[in-house]
Amino acid sequence: MLSARHTLLPRSARIALARDARLGGGNLWRTALEYSRAPDAPLLVSDPPLVVEDGTLRREFGIAALDALADAWSCHYLDRGVRPRDRVALYIEDSFEDHLHLAALARIGAIAVVLNGRLPPEAALGLLERADPVGLYTDPAHLELLGGRHRALPGLRWTHTRADGAGPGNARLPDRARYRHADNDPVFLCHSSGTTGRPKLVTWTHRQSVAGTRFRHRELDHGPVARINDSPAVLIISDTPEYSAGGTQLFPGLRTMIGTVAGRRPEWLRVGPAGHDAVPRERLRASAAGAHALVLLTAVRNNSCSGEIKLALDQLADGPVRRKPVGLVSVGAVQSSHAVDHLRVVLAALDAVVIPGALTVPGPPAVTRLPETRVARQHGMLSGFVEELLWFTGRLRADAPSPTTRPEPPEADAVAEQVDTAVSFIRERFADNELTLGLAARAAHMSKYHFSRTFKRRTGHRFIDFVTELRMEFARSLLLESNLPVADICVKVGYRDLSHFQRTFKATYSLSPSVFRSAAQAGLAPIGSEAPEKEHFGARQPVLCAPGEGSRP
Questions:
Q1: CATH homologous superfamily of 4-213
Q2: Is 223 buried (19+), middle (13-18) or exposed (0-12) by CB count in 10 A?
Q3: How many CB atoms lie within 10 A of CB 439?
Q4: Domain map (residue ranges) of the chain
Q5: Which residues pair with 136 in a beta bridge?
Q6: Which of 532, 518, 545 is nearest to 474 (CA)?
Q7: Residues linked to residue 237 through DSSP beta bridges, in sequence order
Q8: What are 262-293's pLDDT values in tens digits?
Q9: Which CATH number fits domain 224-399: 3.30.450.40, 3.40.50.360, 3.30.565.10, 2.40.30.10?
């Protein structure tokens, strides 16, 4: 059994990694190897398998094995004459192999041109013409799609496929051949989707390519998660006991992973019939009220969750889980289980924030023994599930109004009047897709920077969150009270992009607009009691907003 204790860095090490000025897309694996506690422990299962040094196929890798394999491919590319700033195109089936060759090319200063494996050959050829690579790494299927037309590329010197000869060999890249990237050195090129025209090449630099990951890990030190008494409290509510009758711990990976990432051992409460070591209602509500995040673990049989979990949710009505992130783990369900969808609807009615990713496991290890590759894959899924749960925990806690916030002094009345004017302006114009922070600031007779700070201080909301909440309330009412198509509602509430509207709605209500409407019509979705109050904007709870368009909501 693979354990998070083997491969997951402790909190202090992840903070140190995020602070490491060397870290970037050009040396990501090499730097991760330096910080690894168990470099040979299984970390990744690749599907399809990768071609390794001796030409055989392999699925399971530790970080040390990945680094050695990338070194071997780096030497292979050097032998082919690839030099710093040369471009090498990758046109293969989408898989982890893209990352392997990207890492191998980056460590010698070359630039990978990563093409989507599903890209039509005509579009791929167009990108190849603009990228002007010196080489092409592909597979027989994609080589056949190109039909030999790639040979006309003026700078192309060689083409290599998986079927060409043995593996890259066992050579290790000498230190003198390793490229030292500056922050703005390009590391790889990808491309846009091409939905609005022909695909366009996009450059990712050494520092930029890890900026998102670096930011998330820095938050562990001084961001939202760190502000939750340093370690967030997670409550696991389960219809399964923590230990079997024989004393074996069930689902040990779940508790271990949460404890490792959060820095605090989660509390496990079993719900069920009285007299079966089930937790009393009062303790369940008290523990839920004191937790920062919850995990709901339920057995699924005949496409329905257990009655114990349904009863527990009834007992958690009226506040204990309000505006708290909840992760769902189903035992014995399939990925598309209607039972999981039903739980999302019920939790939305309790005003909980259900994280998008749900975890599905086949059963306790005492019941089901899985192959090592399957275990490793589930280990990776579990890690992502826990990271997502704690990210939502930090974000929601950071956005919550401080209980110690004090009212402004009387001399701030003039500023309060200006903000009130802006609030009225926003309420009248929120459905206008041209509404911006600058327009609201002009209505308040302030600079937009001063207005942004003052608005947050006076209302407890950022401008974009306030507008988003108004739009979501309006969208919700239109979904419940009209038959307008979702696309029309999107425009009517002030959004230009349908996918942006759907993401934001789902982040707010835990359901997509169409599913929300269907659930309401079936009598499952909340109809009125959970809607935010409109009269007192300062008293509303904050809304977790999806990635958007900067100051234009």
A1: ANL, N-terminal domain (3.40.50.12780)
A2: middle
A3: 16
A4: 4-213, 224-399, 412-539
A5: 89, 159
A6: 532
A7: 269, 296
A8: 777 888 888 876 545 567 778 888 888 888 89
A9: 3.40.50.360
Instruction: Tell me what percent of the chain is helix, strand and coil, each rounded to the nearest 5.
Output: 45, 15, 40
- What would the mean pLDDT of 44-49 be, rounded to a whole number? 86
Only one residue has tokens 């009598």, namely 523
Q: Which architecture, in CATH terms, is 412-539?
A: Orthogonal Bundle (1.10)
For the record, the structure tokens of 106 come out as 């980056």
Cβ atoms of residues 36 and 44 within 8 Å: no
Q: Could you tell me whether strands 201-205 and 186-191 are parallel, antiparallel, or unpaired per DSSP bridges?
A: antiparallel
**pLDDT for 157-172, tens place per residue?**
999 987 776 788 889 9
Position 83, amino acid? R
Q: How far is CA 51 from CA 42, 111, 221, in A?
A: 17, 21, 39
Confidence at 143, pLDDT banded by 50, 70, 90: very high
Summarised one tens digit per residue, pLDDT across range 356-415 is 888 877 655 444 444 444 444 556 677 778 888 888 887 776 655 544 444 444 445 567
Q: Do domains 4-213 and 224-399 have the same CATH topology?
A: yes
Contact in structure between 234 and 391 (CB atoms under 8 Å): no
Tokens linked to 335 = 């990925």
Q: How many CB atoms lie within 10 A of CB 19?
A: 12
The 3-state secondary structure of 145-156, one letter per residue? HHCCHHHHCCCC
Helix (H, G, I), strand (E, B) or coil at 361: strand
Q: C-alpha 267: how far from its chain's center?
A: 24
